[in-house]
Amino acid sequence: MTKVISYSKLARQQHLNYLKHQGRGYRQREEYLAGVRKLMFQMEAQMRQAEMQQMEVFREMAEHFKIPLSFPDLGDRVGLQRFFTTNPFLIILQEFFAESLTPEECYQRILALQTESGE
To answer: Is the pTM for the entire model greater than 0.85?
Structure first.
């Protein structure tokens, strides 16, 4: 003889299955997000390292041409961005690196800048 399952037991089982399914999906997404966060953290660390290496090039060039250059605090992203858009020496170098200036044009502008600041 067949046994009749009560509605409450059937509903309970459906709710439990629903909870298990949602929990499994949530945990899978959390694991995926954790992996992506870790990857993004690693990528950001590599980007920061590359940025530091680029800034070192600017420092070396300022030292080579004897132009005083003091960067804002490295944690001040807005300050750094503003510094790069307002400092005449950095603007010249950025144009050179963007290949908007030839080495000769870049050198002439640096000389002009040194003359302006020396007077």
So the answer is: no
